[in-house]
Amino acid sequence: MPFTMLSRFLHPDPRIRRELVDLLYTSLPQVSAIGVTSVTGAAALAAMSGDTGYAVIAFFILVTATARVFSLFRYKSRAALFSDADVVRWERLYGAGASAFGLALGMLSFRALQLDDAPGAWIAFGLSMSFCVGMVSRAAIRPWIILTTAAILLMPTIVAGLLRPEIAYKLGAIMLVFFWLTLREASKHLSAAFVERLEAKHRLARQATHDFLTGLPNRAAFFQALAETREDFAIIAIDLDGFKPVNDRHGHHAGDDLLRQVAERLSSCVGSSGLAARFGGDEFMVLRPVGAGEAGREDALALARQAILDLSMPFLLSNIPVRIGASAGILVSPGVTRAGSASQLLERVDRALYAAKRAGGGRCAWSDENAGLERQAG
Questions:
Q1: Which among 100, 130, 109, 103 is positioned nearest to 54, based on CA atoms?
Q2: Could you tell me which residues are beta bridge partners of residue 327?
Q3: Options 3.30.70.270, 3.30.70.260, 3.40.50.11270, 3.30.428.10; which CATH number does 219-376 get?
Q4: Can you tell me the distance from the alpha carbon of 43 to that of 38, in angstroms, rounded to the nearest whole number?
Q5: How many CA atoms lie within 13 A of 300 on its CB side?
Q6: What is the rounded CA–CA span in Å between residue 234 and residue 285?
Q7: DSSP 8-state class, residue 44
Q8: ∠ CA 299-303-304, rounded to 5°
Q9: What is the DSSP letter of 239?
Q10: Distance of CA 195 to CAs 9, 50, 88, 201, 278, Å?
Q11: 333 forms bridges with which residues in the sheet?
Q12: Most buried of 142, 212, 281, 299, CB within 10 angstroms?
């Protein structure tokens, strides 16, 4: 299925999309069981009847079943390295494998009805229904895969039934169409309920790591990111100058709006390689990897100055231009051999921030890493 056609079935949140695909690839017990059963049944039909058609279909079932099991192991071993685009490709691969296996089982039923082999038709139909039952457990995860596979699985049986002269076969074929429609409705409802639960779980997880007002990561998320940093990094503590008068004059709603705009500017300033977090009130923290030695200090200073400049530009609050300022404290530390714990690092950068504010605001100050003293940076 082309990506453009598949896009409308994909969940817009890559994290939820990945979790759904991860769940798809936990189906090894079901896939293995139906694979072994189907290969055994098809091989038995080929051996008992001596029909070449049965033998070809049995081989096709064996190939598709083996490929599906192999893909399950392959995904599990490499999933941690996949990008969002890789996850989408593996979802399509799962759908293709399930559809190919469904087609093989459908052709087994078609051949049995074509040969007027009643025992063979009974075995083939039983295998098809077993496959459908197994797929129902995946219906809540990715319904498009189940519905596409079920249609491919049932179509040869429906066609064979309609081609038979007996009215009973024709009625049975029509009933299979209604079975697919019932499966479609059940899948839609199951999927909607399941995805809603996943979305609620992710919302709760986000609330634990993100500030509810600005959407920025919170203190807990900042500490987590800091703990995972393995290269030289800069911490920049930022406090707004003149925020309280704006909040008092224009009201708390305007103050909240101002904080959201500040968050947007800081996120843009830091870029995708860093992280801007809100620590509470009008205090923010920035974390970004920097180069080693003096180059890293220059990078950190440039970032702090850019943040102060960005926050000094006018903000619009209900179409009223408002100006504030910002002060910053800067600390640069090696990632692996960092001096002190995370709390100690934040204490030092906070001292630098307060030194900048005491100096009149609108500027930044360094936290001296040797003596714990602060000196003016500009």
A1: 109
A2: 239
A3: 3.30.70.270
A4: 8
A5: 33
A6: 10
A7: H
A8: 120
A9: E
A10: 12, 48, 17, 10, 30
A11: 233
A12: 142
For the record, the structure tokens of 182 come out as: 């019932």
At a CB cut-off of 8 Å and minimum separation 6, what does 334 contact?
232, 292
Report the C-alpha gap between 37 and 35 in whole angstroms: 6
Strands 320-322, 315-317: pairing is: antiparallel
* pTM value > 0.85: no
Per residue of the chain (378 residues), give pLDDT as tens.
444 444 445 566 778 888 888 888 988 888 999 999 999 999 999 999 999 999 999 999 999 999 999 999 999 999 888 988 899 899 999 999 999 999 999 999 999 999 999 999 999 989 998 898 888 777 678 888 889 999 999 999 999 999 999 999 999 999 999 999 988 888 888 888 888 888 788 777 777 788 889 999 999 899 989 888 888 999 999 999 999 999 888 888 999 999 999 999 999 999 988 999 999 889 999 999 998 888 989 999 999 999 999 999 999 998 889 999 999 999 998 765 455 588 889 999 999 999 999 988 899 999 864 333 344 455
Catalytic annotation present for 256: no
303's tokens? 């970032």
Residue 201 token pair: 């779980």
Residues in the chain: 378
* Cα-based torsion angle of the residue sequence 10, 12, 15, 20 in order, rounded to the nearest 10 degrees: -30
Query: Which one is catalytic: 239, 282, 299, 350?
Result: 282
Question: What single letter denotes the amino acid at residue 141?
Answer: I
Task: Give the tokens for residue 312.
Answer: 């000094």
- The sign of the torsion formed by the CA atoms of 340, 342, 347, 350 equals positive
Specify whether the CB–CB gap between 146 and 102 falls below 8 A. no
Q: Domains of the chain: which residue ranges?
A: 3-208, 219-376
